[in-house]
Specification:
homodimer, alpha+beta, Jelly Rolls, four-stranded antiparallel beta sheet, 7 helices, about 45% helix, DNA-binding
Chain lengths: ~170, ~170
Amino acid sequence: MLNHKTAQIKKIVKGEILLKQGEITKYGYFVNRGCLKSYAVDNAGKEHIMQFAPENWMISDLDSFTNQVPSLVSIEAIEDSEVSLISRSDFGDFSKLEKKTLIELAIKSRNNMIATNKRIIGLLSWSSEKRYLDFTETYPTLVQRLPLKLIASYIGVTPEYLSDIRRKIAKK
Amino acid sequence: MLNHKTAQIKKIVKGEILLKQGEITKYGYFVNRGCLKSYAVDNAGKEHIMQFAPENWMISDLDSFTNQVPSLVSIEAIEDSEVSLISRSDFGDFSKLEKKTLIELAIKSRNNMIATNKRIIGLLSWSSEKRYLDFTETYPTLVQRLPLKLIASYIGVTPEYLSDIRRKIAKK
DNA sequence: GTCATTTCTTAAGGTATCTTATTTTTAATT
DNA sequence: AATTAAAAATAAGATACCTTAAGAAATGAC
């Protein structure tokens, strides 16, 4: 979709931060290798994961990227990674894009929206156990790859409680 | 964006249902007048509101519309309303759309995505009181227009508890 | 291979939010 | 206006989930 071949590439190590909550971002990131997360830290200092981005995913704070407002999230590498930088000059103005690119974008946006809508329904109406089971079905490779505490943060429970959930599931 | 002028128009009364959870939808709806909601009913029979759609908003189950799979939500009029029907033949295939339309779509999708992302962050990391206050700031007209129990359902608390929240806020 | 660090598990007590039920207020219908 | 129905407020008891804390297991560093 984006012109990754000519894009600027950046290598980052685990723990490295590409965007800090409250800052205005210049870039979106396309993940070539590794895995990133975006997350918000609440008043109590707790971290809540908005998104995981393994290979071939994009990650950014879309509002900060588009409207140059402070970001609600931080973006950090959870593995050693390589990303392509997507800049506003390349991608900020849709009218500069080719029709073909716009169609690809529309399809990806739609798929993203479908997944995001499902997540909201889950947060509103599913039990934490069901949210965990859905996560394992939707992202089986991430379940292997990520520590429990990151998954807990994504589905909206504490690591201790997810540990309880797992034990209850195992007992069945 | 869509060709509302030639679209099929439908008048519906309060309480009328346009889509039932589990069914496959043929249409999306653009609201000309009135207000609709989409909601999921959980195992315990409780209703959880995904979206409100007042005038000039679109509403549908995007996954059901796009992929012809069972809908996760029902769509119902919460006021007497008039909607324009958006069919898959008009809007299912992006390659048939004009570039101008695709650009409009990309902008609307982006704005929608920004709002939806914020809602997820709110559900994960804000207190219920903060979620309510944010709702009143983001949708001041809807706060006047909608009964408390629908707002409670949207922000993810029971009506009784939202009533408590309001009382606490008023005491300050 | 040992030591240090991080992750995971387990458990007890606490809090936010829910459930159920009753009363009051508001809105809809005739 | 009177009647009915729906919405909102209030309160007491129940529960899902959190907090804190400690020990066990796994992972990474030297």
